[in-house]
Amino acid sequence: MNPFIIETHGLSYSFGKHQVLHDLELRVPKGAIFGFLGPNGAGKSTTIRILLGLLPVPKGQVRVHGQDLTEHRLDILRRTGSLIEMPTLYRHLSGYDNLEMHRRMVQAPQSRIAEVLQIVGLTKDAPRKTKEYSLGMSQRLGIALALLSEPELLVLDEPTNGLDPSGIREVRELIVRLNRDFGKTIFLSSHLLSEIEKCATEVAIIDKGTTLYQGSLQQLYQGTFQSNVLQLETSNNAIAHKLLTDHAYQLLPQQDDVLAVQVQDRQQVAKINRFLIVNGLEVYRLSTHTQNLEELFLNITNRDSATVPMSESTPVLKP
Q: Where in the numbering of this chain does the ABC transporter domain appear (predicted)?
């Protein structure tokens, strides 16, 4: 049984002479909240348009729900819901009437309207005209529209764009609940890396149309880029700096009289502590800092070396 709900193989795309995607490889596991990340111009929007059948697949292969997109486009779209930034709503109509119009187009049962309103928390506000909705309510109604056909896959592009902190939290909690309670696979693109960090289980980072990293957040945090930083304060930081440098430890720029050393694991922290004490130094401070997703993202996308080919069991990354 295929464990992936989205797969791309050697996906390339050009606008005229400008190539946007270069042999892009993606594997989105079924049941995941999949964070799709990349700087502006990385090719995220083009990839999403291809996945939704809005652009052709000129080179490479795209499989969604186990089917080839070029051969089964309509069937794939029936099983896929989407919200691209802002929903298109008829502002003079109520939330209910907007859902009713869309329900007729996707041929969903009448009872589905009440179900999706309850899921997104808009049952009481359904009779109101959508021009009276807050931005957060409009986004949740957009997700309700995407849910009408009971899709297995939701593609959400910048669903929290422009929302205040309260609205961002509402949409984030809804995304988590759709995945946890309703089994939806969520393909989520966002510039808010802190939000991806709070809800995603898998991430892909692309830049210049190429996959730089793909795998679980846990794999990314657990040393993919030696992400742990040990912060040290001793009785003589100058001597400590020289000792550590002479023994091939990687020291980072010093801030506020605190030494920063790149470490791989807890065992190395203990080894450094013993080493400094044996050499006559007192250790006043010993704490580790793990880089967050934003720091790792900047680390990965600022690298210029070649990518490592992806297998189904190995994350893609730029070493």
A: 6-233
Contact 268, 232 (CB under 8 A): no
Contacts of residue 269, Cβ cutoff 8 Å, sequence gap at least 6: 230, 263, 286, 288
CA 212 – CA 204 distance, rounded (Å): 8
pLDDT tens digits, 268-316: 889 999 999 999 999 998 887 667 788 778 878 874 433 333 433 334 4
pLDDT for residue 222: 66
pTM exceeds cut of 0.85: no
The token duo for 42 is: 């990385």
R_g over Cα of the chain: 24
State the CB neighbour count (10 A cutoff) for residue 186: 22
Q: Tell me how many degrees the CA angle 90-182-201 measures, rounded to the nearest 5.
A: 100
